[in-house]
Amino acid sequence: MLSIAEDFWPFPAGRVEADGPYNGERFRKEKLLPALIAAEEAEAVLVVQLDGLKSCGSSFLESAFGGLVRYEGYTARKLQKLIRIDLQSSSLERYKISIETHIKRAVAE
Amino acid sequence: MEFLVAIFAALAAALLTYLAQNYFAMQSEDSAHLNDHISEIKIIESYAVEYWLADPDEEEKKQRLYQVKLEGAISSSSCFNEDAQRILGYKYTEYVKLDQAIFEAATGGAFGTAEKAIDYNRVVEIMTLCTQMRSLLRQSRRIQYMAN
Q: Could you report the predicted ipTM of this complex, rounded to two decimals?
């Protein structure tokens, strides 16, 4: 399981390094991608935990999750099988929908 | 026998009064919740417009301030989502779509990035979506008043 708040930062923001230390690209490369590869090797589903997240822009989520399709060679269909977004609080539902939408809409570059 | 009927009628009346009081108190709380959320949408709109109209070259500090205010407003407004389905009923699906669209328009694109520039189109989109959201919330509030 990967918790954005606990394993990264509760207030992530921005897309790339120039936008700040807790940006989407850094989260994708340092946390999300290694966890995803480990889950793939174990033939498991990676659970991404949203609880604890205090604030988060759509730009961060697009860079982190949409970036898996745009830069890391994953397809939306594969990610839909590999990743499960988990949350206890319904107040975080919009982040979940945003992640799912960004994965679906992303186009490989 | 008459005495028992009188007691039963009094108990039934007390129970009905209790249930009615609870019902109207809950309706009143839901209306207050809707009013609060309408205010939250106004605040989101105000900060989002300021943020996306701020020139990063001339108003860097102000822009950062608007960004933090907008993040706070967006984040705190999500508390409504915990009760939204119960309060909004059949309008909930439409609400989720609008809520998501506001979130994407206000914090998407170059939000919080070094690439952020003035974005007039986004401002128009945010204002339109926020107006649609307020309209939906007011319709729900009206339905609640009619139910009372």
A: 0.90
Q: Which residues pair with A85 in a beta bridge?
A: A48
- Asked whether the beta carbons of residue A15 and residue B74 sit closer than 8 angstroms, the reply is no
Q: Residue A52: how many CB atoms within 10 A of its CB?
A: 15
Inter-chain contact A97–B96, Cβ cutoff 8 Å? Answer: yes
Q: Tokens for B129?
A: 């979506």
**B67: CB partners within 8 A, 6+ apart:** B51, B111, B112
Q: Write out pLDDT tens, residues A23-46.
A: 999 999 999 999 999 999 999 999
Residues in chain A where the model's pLDDT stays below 70: none
Chain B residues close to A13, C-beta within 8 Å: 71, 112
Range of the domain at A30: 2-105
**Structural domain count of chain A:** 1
Judged by CB atoms closer than 8 Å, whether chains meet at B112 and A60 is answered as yes
Put simply, whether the predicted model's pTM sits higher than 0.90 gets the answer: no
Separation of alpha carbons A31 and A43, rounded Å: 18
pLDDT higher than threshold 70 for residue B26: yes
